[in-house]
Amino acid sequence: MSVPFRLGLTGSIGMGKSTTAAMFAAAGVPVWDADAAVHRLYAPGGAAVPAIAALHPAAVKDGAVDRAALKDWIAANPGALRQIEGAVHPLVAADREAFLAGAVDKPLVVLDIPLLFETGADAQMDATLVVSAPAEVQRARVLARPGMTLAQLDLILSRQMPDAEKRARATWVIETTGLETTRAAVQDLIETIRARRHA
Questions:
Q1: How many C-beta atoms lie closer than 10 Å to residue 97's C-beta?
Q2: Is the Cα torsion angle 148, 183, 185, 129 positive or negative in sign?
Q3: What residue spans of the chain are helical by DSSP H?
Q4: Cα–Cα dist 178/23, whole Å
Q5: Which of 78, 127, 133, 175 could form an S-S bond across to 171 if both were Cys, CB 3.0 to 4.6 Å?
Q6: Three-state DSSP class for 99?
Q7: Any idea which architecture 1-30+107-199 has in CATH?
Q8: DSSP, res 57
Q9: Sequence spans of domains, the chain
Q10: Residue 2 reports pLDDT greater than 80
């Protein structure tokens, strides 16, 4: 039984991370999505619901975590985010381990983690991939999202490691300026990793 090669995928907002993750999935590579894991944990019956209810009952409505109420609590209470992370991060880690346990026979898995470097999760990867695009492309993509403002974008970017630093720390970087070139780069990387495993 072989252990899969763990590729940590990350990139700042608007850099094309979700699109790139979908390309790996379309190529038959199992992908674990940290954001999707949190959504599952916050949904009705999710493991995080009782944990959040114990911290802040008002953040749970109709048996699910209410993200808007959670944001309000974080805004009003400086210590709230740390409490939430303390409760939710172990559950996210357990979800990731369950995914890995189900993929033991695969040569490669992708772990899509927005704050890969910021949380130190890169230390658990065999290699890291950063998706990137020029700042003006990033800005145009994000501002095209419904309800997004320049102020919101600046706030999000202030909480993320700068793109240049992510690129410097990455094993590989893929530029996401065009769909076909990105897809070709993904395919090349899959073949590079497979060749490396068989070397």
A1: 11
A2: positive
A3: 17-26, 34-42, 48-55, 67-76, 80-101, 135-143, 150-159, 163-169, 179-198
A4: 13
A5: 127
A6: helix
A7: 3-Layer(aba) Sandwich (3.40)
A8: G
A9: 1-30+107-199, 36-102
A10: no
Please report the pLDDT score of residue 196 as a whole number: 83
The token pair at 129 is: 């991939």
Token pair listed for 101: 């346990």
> Do the beta carbons of residue 27 and residue 186 sit within 8 Å?
yes
**Are residues 139 and 14 in contact, defined by beta-carbon separation less than 8 angstroms?**
yes
pLDDT, one tens digit per residue, over 132-143 is 999 999 999 999
State the amino acid at position 122 in one-letter form: D
The dihedral built from the CA positions of residue 63, 69, 71 and 77, taken in this order, carries a sign that is negative
3, 42, 170, 191 from 197: Cα distances, Å? 11, 37, 19, 10
Token readout for 67 is: 């993200």
Total-model pTM:
0.89
Q: State the pLDDT confidence band at 199, using cuts at 50, 70 and 90.
A: low
What pLDDT, on a 0 to 100 scale, did the predictor assign at position 198? 73
Q: Determine if residue 173 is left, alpha or beta; phi over 0 gives left, psi from -120 to 50 gives alpha, anything else beta.
A: beta
User: Strand, helix or coil at 150?
Assistant: helix
- pLDDT tens, 70-118? 989 988 998 898 999 999 999 999 999 999 999 988 999 999 999 899 8
Q: Kindly state the average pLDDT of the residues 2-16.
A: 93
